[in-house]
Amino acid sequence: MIPVCVLTGFLGSGKTTLLAHLLRQPGFARTAVVINEFGEVGLDHELVETSDESFVTLQTGCLCCAVRGDLVRTLDGLLRRRDAGAVPPFERVVVETTGLADPAPVLQALMTDAAVAGRMALAGVVTTVDAVNGAGTLERHPESAKQLAVADRLVLTKTDLPGAAPEALRARLAALNPAAPVLQADHGRIAPERLFDAGLPDPAGRMPDVARWLAAEAHAAGPRGRGDRHDAGITTFCLTREKPIRAVALALFLEALAEHRGADLLRVKGLLNIAESPERPAVIHGVQHVFHPPAWLARWPSEDRRSRLVFITRGIPRRWVELLLEALDEEVALAEDPRP
Length: 340
What we know:
The chain is of the alpha/beta class. The protein has 11 helices and 14 strands.
């Protein structure tokens, strides 16, 4: 599977500067970068090896291409050209969204579209945050809060400029997304490897760092971990369950969430103890109405076998989610009980 990192952030938050630096780093080699317009990223022409209408290959081994209409068609075209040997054999992909974009459709495409989902896997969401204007942007533009809330990594930019208030902004970010580590870019410079280690656990590869990906403790005990309201009505909380969950109850639960509150379900992550498979935990991941098929790990990554579900929502009450799961699990238990 080729890991895909989604780079998002509001207009002027520093995505262009960050990308321009990354494209020049040896540690970024064998990376394909999908951007909206080449003009948004200043490329040093001395680094350019070849280019055509849609692709620019750099001497560092990076490949840049522009979105031509639909993102899925662009990614599928990249894979076809890679298979044919027409482009370098890239090992990861970075998708940069526009400053006003909702990242959810990008994540959903990576999770479900047959053209790419079988060969590409989400490797995390990185959101850039302007240390000068970030707080004001959050006040005026609710979409920026969503970009921050769904992130696996947050990158503070422009911390060297007059008016920057990185420490005050860090407190705001911790309230909005307590689980995402906050990194700091120095004039757009940051080590590439720090951005590419937050993806979905890979059941077929090495034992993944599920704890870091899930970050359940941060959502449970962070500044807003109890589901308090904050920017744009976004709430974060973690449900922990000692009792195993029946597979049918889980399926009904996810279906009900997507059908009734999908628009407000920004992101869901979970490591679950399924009653029918107690030795192999299930990993789930959802974005609004779309849930990735459960991935089954070969074994539990630790002695803790509790189910943990992390929610990032827009105004969905924690208690409503708890009651829904309890009711469905009880209903399935009654249906399976053979006693009259």
